[in-house]
Model the fold of this input.
Amino acid sequence: MYGPNASDSIIANVLAHELSHRYQSDGRREQLLDEIGREYLQTTDGGAVQRALVEGGPTYVADTYADEHLSDSRNLSEEIAPRWDDFGIVRRVMWSGHYLGAAYLHQRIDSPQQLDEVYADPPRTTEQVLHPERGDEPPRNLTVTANTSASAWETGRRDVRGEMYTRILLGPALGSDRAAEAAAGWGMDREVVFFQGSDQGHAWVLRWDDAANATEFEGAFEAFLDQRANATDGRWSHDGHAFDVLRVSDETVVVLWGDAGFVDGATVTGDDGSITVMPPATNESARRVPVLG
Done:
């Protein structure tokens, strides 16, 4: 948690954080399971909500301790802030609970004594973590159906990625400010994984609050792919995977990625709240992309 040359104030910050974890008994996790729902907590978005509370709470306590007793040094959130933009995707995920979770708590409560109120009425999505003022705003309706009746492709895992994941994914390539703007306006998303033998395809369906937010995300994600992959004829390829971005309706954008045969052959139809994904038909041959250096 800290290096051998860490100052006394940094050590005190970390100890305050770690000691706060002792307060978080298993009862806190059970409370979150009851309030958020076990099924949603198994998604990427639900896991990020839990991480924001489990790590954000102790960080908030450590920040409060530092502000009251270590006024001559930075608190834990202030230690992370200047390094955040240098973090890659993996480190942002690892530190998101400490940094973004603590930011949520700083906006929502005024004292560590109020932490129980947060656990009793937690945010349900990372959109609510990132925007506490929208705490009563429910996710948008979104149903994604996988129609595999004419295909050898089968469906696998389903997920909800969430606004925080979207922001973190785009951040290192586009900068934190543009990534935050592109991810804001998230209404709901659903990811469906398809597989055929060892090949995989993914359909990530995102519904936005309005058409303007959908357009902003569409442009940002294409800019992200332009930086991270090779563009050819409206498609992108990288590290053996193909990518495509589809605007299905005013509020809905779909990102397809995985085996090139899946990306080129999949069909996506529907409206803002109801999307159907059809993988390539059985008689369509798969076209693979080379692994790029």
The first helix runs from residue 8 to 23.
